């Protein structure tokens, strides 16, 4: 058991490669992340973040402000995330990295489209959400929208170093914001991204091999192990 | 000005074909639907529904229950909607109807994938959300999740009659639920879908023409006019 933000919880690691999310506990939705809080079984990361920050009195108000306008802004950013930043970032990483590493040729049109959506989303982050604010909730401390969107941008670390810098470099405020989310959530931000950085080198090496820079044989098993997301179920209370 | 659920509002129609959502009022997000409530400018339909039902005391509690577990369930259904039901339904209607009507050939793989996502989503609606409940919020009256998801399913009315019945027929509870949302929100549900049904015949006729059943020349302008979504900005207070 651990306690963070006044929430007692037990963290449960789920190995999706072993199909552990198909076990009876995950019926009927079979989605992770998921939490159990008393009688409530809840899935969808945004719904979980809202529940944890509104139902546990130990959670500081900057995570999910009570003020109606600030709360409405958090909701609109979280909803926008689904159709824009997530669609662009997850679409680009899946179609240019994860599928090719698993032997499925990527469709160049889909990759181009995902990158366009990503660039437009980063531009909105830079020029709208973070234009005059350190964080998205309009506070000097991060909100649940900062947490969710920053973790999405972090997934771009799986791109090649060249692509990563080409895409992210123009967005100075986005880069500073990621650093601010990281420094204000020490040591958790680094802890949850440990596995991402562990995978980064292996994935970049495999991608370089596939693009013909090296002649090393690719083992699908190695690649799957690298990609296994360390996604967790948190059992609370 | 109108008053519904104790909310005074002015409804503003936005013609997206004339690019009215690019006018200065819609900067910086250029998204509709959007509302203005005092100093708050808000976009994203789910965020708007949550704001209206939590900030106006005249709105009955079944729309957005105060109970933490019921509210958490509403949030998880709304989040799930983005990645599943909306992705399947909007993906199928766009790729099998709207793009071809605008002269862009549809990609059969994308259409098949969208239909698969839609069928899986309808199955979750039937066998999980509506298994033992008349509405999704666990009340005898609809919630904002019922409103949003029912309107998404209604978009399938733009498919051919054959496809519509092939896809929807197995889902008896979904069909009954749509009728229940419609009857409990009279006359608004029919009013907002008036334009959809007005477009339905024209679109079905054009699609039949395109598939070679008729030889009539297709005018892109006609088709664009048929597809023009009547989406509104609601100015409140």
UniProtKB/TrEMBL annotation, chains A, B:
<dbReference type="InterPro" id="IPR010987">
    <property type="entry name" value="Glutathione-S-Trfase_C-like"/>
</dbReference>
<dbReference type="InterPro" id="IPR004045">
    <property type="entry name" value="Glutathione_S-Trfase_N"/>
</dbReference>
<dbReference type="InterPro" id="IPR036249">
    <property type="entry name" value="Thioredoxin-like_sf"/>
</dbReference>
<dbReference type="GO" id="GO:0004364">
    <property type="term" value="F:glutathione transferase activity"/>
</dbReference>
<keyword id="KW-0216">Detoxification</keyword>
<feature type="domain" description="GST C-terminal">
    <location>
        <begin position="67"/>
        <end position="203"/>
    </location>
</feature>
<feature type="domain" description="GST N-terminal">
    <location>
        <begin position="1"/>
        <end position="60"/>
    </location>
</feature>
<dbReference type="InterPro" id="IPR043377">
    <property type="entry name" value="GSTT1/2/3"/>
</dbReference>
<comment type="similarity">
    <text>Belongs to the GST superfamily. Theta family.</text>
</comment>
<dbReference type="InterPro" id="IPR040079">
    <property type="entry name" value="Glutathione_S-Trfase"/>
</dbReference>
<dbReference type="Pfam" id="PF02798">
    <property type="entry name" value="GST_N"/>
</dbReference>
<dbReference type="GO" id="GO:0009407">
    <property type="term" value="P:toxin catabolic process"/>
</dbReference>
<protein>
    <recommendedName>
        <fullName>glutathione transferase</fullName>
        <ecNumber>2.5.1.18</ecNumber>
    </recommendedName>
</protein>
<dbReference type="Pfam" id="PF13410">
    <property type="entry name" value="GST_C_2"/>
</dbReference>
<dbReference type="InterPro" id="IPR036282">
    <property type="entry name" value="Glutathione-S-Trfase_C_sf"/>
</dbReference>
<keyword id="KW-0808">Transferase</keyword>
